[in-house]
Amino acid sequence: MLTYPLRRLAISIPTLLFISLAIFFLLNLAPNDPMAQVPLTVPPEVKEKMREALGYGQPLLVQYWKWLVQFFWIEPQVWIDATFGTSLSEGKQRIISWQTRSPVMDIVAQRLPQTLWVVGMSYVVGILIALPIGIYSAYRQYSVFDQVGTFVAMVGYSVPPFFSGVFAIVIFSISLGWFPSIYDTTHQVVDWDSFVFQLRQMIMPVMVLALQTTAQLSRFMRSSMLDNLNQDYVRTARAKGASEWSVVMIHVLRNSMIPVVTVIALGIPSIFGGAIITEQVFKVNGIGQQLIGALYANDLPTVQTLTFMFAFLIVMFNLIADILYGLLDPRIRYD
Prior knowledge:
Shape: globular
Number of helices: 13
CATH class of the domain at 106-162 and 206-328: Mainly Alpha
Largest sheet: none
CATH architecture of the domain at 106-162 and 206-328: Orthogonal Bundle
């Protein structure tokens, strides 16, 4: 079992290097200038020195190599320094945002907690709702519950977040006044009242995002359960006198979770990527909004770093999903 993860990690390294190379050169094909946000009153010779200080007067291959060193070597040292109080990264050039003139990873560290609070919570809520719905819909196929669940899932999967988000604001914020329409990222939880306000401002963005997650996963769960409910081992377990709860929740559910695990694992990187549209609708100051702002400002280092982070997470969680296959299904072996 240990050989397979090591082999996959060895394959993942050149894959990630190729992805980073493609991202870097594709983004550099677009017209960009690190001095685009600098006031026009700054003399051209000063701008040129600033470009050279950022390393953008050198060939693309040299810039790419420096970015790799900054991302994989210097930024981890910064994290070690912040955690253990060392000084490994002192005086070293980090990845600098053209828009804010500050290190990109510092901005990511500031915005990531907001994204995890909202998007991460919505993903957990979506999973907790979707799995029981999918299991019961399959067990009671073509029942009223199954048909209602199918209709709700179809609506949730078809309606885009920019519509459902605005619709939720109009109904629950403007008309009823139950929840705030704008997410206050500066709010701090210090007592019970502030905790209640935090919950109130999270409800709408979390439920808008959870609607799509629930719609997708519940259909996968239902389909996978239906594929296993009529298998021979289910009839054998029932013939041996196993209870219906044991048959469905132990025998059928374990095998049915295998394809669902893939969907769940591959959806986790989207948590760190943020919900770009929903964060814009509710003004959540998260990673998704940072990416949109960087695209508008032509902030190449930020776009490049965030895009590669998402690709890295997708590759890693794909590996995790494959490993979980062997834990869920004893028939799968990686030897």
